Amino acid sequence: MAETLTFDQVHLGVPDPEAAARWYVETLGASPGEHVDRVWFGGVRVIFLKNEAPGPSDGAAIDHFALSYGDVTAATQTLAHSGVRVTTPVSMAPGLGRYAFIEDPWGSKIQLVEDPDALGFHHVHLRVPEPDRARAWYLERFGGTPARHKGTLDGLQYGRIWVFLDAGTAPPSRGRAIDHVGWRMPDLQEKAEELRGKGVTFTVEPKPGPASPGAPVLMSFTEDPWGVKIELLQRAED
Q1: Domain residues of the chain, as ranges?
Q2: Average per-residue pLDDT in the chain?
Q3: Are 216 and 184 in contact (CB under 8 A)?
Q4: What's the topology of domain 6-234?
Q5: Are β-strands 109-114 and 153-158 bridged in parallel, bridged antiparallel, or unpaired?
Q6: Cβ 192 vs Cβ 208: under 8 Å
Q7: Of 109, 112, 128, nearest to 120 (Cα)?
Q8: % the chain with pLDDT above 70
Q9: What tens digit of pLDDT does each residue of 152-181 get?
Q10: Which residues, 6+ apart, have CB-to-CB distance to 234 below 8 Å?
Q11: What is the pTM (predicted TM-score) of this model?
């Protein structure tokens, strides 16, 4: 198993990144980021990529991400009253607790979960034909800790962030409302060489990040075998 990387970000496609960042702060309680195109949920960045017409994330390779609240019922009611589209009302998942689904104005599917011990950004949920094979692929390349959330749902943990994998065929995430996810590491060039030896092909080779606040020192892109777009990056703080 590889060294565990740090889960860094989810990147969303929207027509107006600055307006989307404001919506996430005002509506979902995110903290403003280092630049107008991003916000924070705890230690995870949600970054907005300009896309005039993103496809919805529902049913794509990155199906949704989740935010955890102490009281999902109250949070869902508040969001519904503010005009947020609730696509699945508050329900109970045996062994996991209450949850609901909402959709942001640009097509990102967001699950609200009730996990008081892990408030804020909670997980990303991938849709792949072979979940067991995909979990092994991520473990071999990005590390992670195999675990069962609340003893019920198999996943991988990257620190306090979960990655869950559901069975199903799905179109690639690229160009969708949830465009890609990102992991960071102290030395991207070294890690890239290791990953090439494990069959990873880079769609964008490691290169300097843009000259803007919060941008990585080095960044690169790849995709897993099932269409999940992935950013691998190195930040100055590492």
Answers
A1: 6-234
A2: 96
A3: yes
A4: 2,3-Dihydroxybiphenyl 1,2-Dioxygenase; domain 1 (3.10.180)
A5: unpaired
A6: no
A7: 112
A8: 99
A9: 999 999 999 999 999 999 999 999 999 999
A10: 184, 185, 186, 187, 188, 216, 217, 218, 219
A11: 0.96
**Are the beta carbons of 167 and 131 closer than 8 angstroms?**
yes
CA angle 163, 155, 205 (to 5 degrees): 40
How far is Cα 223 from Cα 152, in angstroms, rounded to an integer? 28
**DSSP at 3:** P
122 forms beta bridges with none
pLDDT one-digit tens code per residue, 82-137: 999 999 999 999 989 999 999 999 999 999 999 988 999 999 999 999 999 999 99
Among left, alpha and beta (phi > 0; psi -120 to 50; other), residue 210 is beta
Cα 105 from Cα 112, distance rounded (Å)? 16
Q: Residue 26 is inside which H or E element, if any? A: helix 17-28
**CA separation for the pair 146, 126 (Å, rounded):** 15
Do 83 and 28 contact (CB within 8 A), yes or no? no
* Cα–chain center distance at 200: 20
Which of 82, 143, 86, 131 is CA-nearest to residue 112?
Answer: 86
- What is the rounded CA–CA span in Å between residue 65 and residue 231? 16
Q: What's residue 238's pLDDT?
A: 63
Query: What count of Cα atoms within 13 Å lies in the side-chain half-sphere of residue 11?
Result: 19
